[in-house]
């Protein structure tokens, strides 16, 4: 797989050639090189990866072309966006799904990550050919990979992770999760410049909000890796971080990668999954702590997973109050209805074992005791 061939395919599909920012080429080269040398892709996996990378390039070309034809969209602000993040598997999905029920808010939807141009009208957010095509893929996933939906399920109109706004810049943890590419993973942790990806992130939102309006409410567990770049592009962002017992976090996150990676490779190294995630989580905690030291404890609203599970709407109200806002009656009623329609385990039960990844509960407790003390993380016992 060559970057030149991917670019040629994307440009051929679209008839376009402006990427908007050539800084994406360096991370794309690193990503492709890491995939070629390390990912051990199956034949099906190789086809899928090429299709994915070309798809992101196609989206980028189309977005930049649309913005070039409609430059006034770039003058419209993205005001006080809310970002939900935390170590993976800490309740970010439940929280964003509840926030999405507030009619005053606007989430980045799964189908919009696949086919964003032209920007949708309000009537198209939950209907139309692009929605239908994405929902068909969801139905196939439920049929052929129900174990993944049991861990993490998204419908076409579900809020999806805003790292897919960064994926067309090829600086996104998405790739490192899907494929075993340690060189790219190290690049992402210690070398990558996230600022160009966030600048495109905003351009993407400015396109999508053309016809719909609403307060952007986004989530991506990996944001602790690049909070400074996020703040540089969104200085008035509202930041919400979720926290959960690290034993459950590590086991659940490892299990998700164990479920996903066989879709691309016949060789899945479970011990490597454990090692990689622990290193990544270490960096996430370190950078969050540094951010708080610079901007203050109240610069992030902290949400405990167990509190979220016991009183979801009450926690949402507390988040609103943290930012000097109130939850409307209409939004609260919609959130309650969502909870009634989507009980925990709706798509199956998620089970996992730390031992599969060469890990133990005691070792994880010891490793993350400082994190638990610093953020008051609650455990079930």
Report on this model:
The protein has helices at residues 3-14, 25-38, 43-69, 92-99, 129-144, 146-151, 173-178, 182-190, 195-208, 227-233, 246-260, 270-295, 305-310, 312-322, 329-341, 361-367, 369-375, and strands at 82-86, 105-107, 215-219, 238-243, 300-304. With 381 residues, the protein is an alpha/beta fold. Helix 1 (3-14) packs across helix 3 (43-69).
Quaternary structure type: single chain
In total, the number of strands is: 5
Spans of at least 5 consecutive residues with low confidence:
none
**End-to-end CA span:** 50 Å
Number of helices: 17
Beta percentage is 5-15%
Q: Reading side by side through the largest sheet, how are the strands ordered?
A: 2-3-1-4-5
Overall pLDDT, averaged? 92
Provide the gyration radius in Å: 20 Å
Structural class: alpha/beta
SSE string, helices as H and strands as E: HHHEHEHHHHHEHEHHEHHHHH
Task: Specify the biggest β-sheet.
Answer: 5 strands, parallel
Instruction: Report helical residue fraction.
Output: 40-55%
What is the overall silhouette?
A: globular
